[in-house]
Amino acid sequence: MARRPTIIDVARRAGVSKSTVSLVLRNSPIVREATRAIVRTAMTEEGYVYNRTAANMRGADAGLIGLVINDLRNPFFTQFATSLQMTLSARNYSAVIANTDEDPMLQDQVVRAMIEHGVSAFVISPAYGDVTATFNAIARAGKPLMQVLRKVDPRVDLFPFAAPDYRRGSRIATEHLLKGGAERIAFVGGLQGRNVTSERMSGYLAVLEEIQMDPVVLTGRSNRAFGHEAVRRLEMEFDDVDAALCFNDFVAMGMLTDFARSGKVVGTNFRIVGFDDIEDCSQIYPSLSSVHCDISAFGKRIAETVLAWLEEGSKPQAEMRTPVSLVVRESSQDETLSNL
Amino acid sequence: MARRPTIIDVARRAGVSKSTVSLVLRNSPIVREATRAIVRTAMTEEGYVYNRTAANMRGADAGLIGLVINDLRNPFFTQFATSLQMTLSARNYSAVIANTDEDPMLQDQVVRAMIEHGVSAFVISPAYGDVTATFNAIARAGKPLMQVLRKVDPRVDLFPFAAPDYRRGSRIATEHLLKGGAERIAFVGGLQGRNVTSERMSGYLAVLEEIQMDPVVLTGRSNRAFGHEAVRRLEMEFDDVDAALCFNDFVAMGMLTDFARSGKVVGTNFRIVGFDDIEDCSQIYPSLSSVHCDISAFGKRIAETVLAWLEEGSKPQAEMRTPVSLVVRESSQDETLSNL
DNA sequence: CTGAAAGCGCTTACAG
DNA sequence: CTGAAAGCGCTTACAG
Question: Which pLDDT tens digit goes with each residue over B316-335?
Answer without folding.
Answer: 999 999 999 999 999 998 75
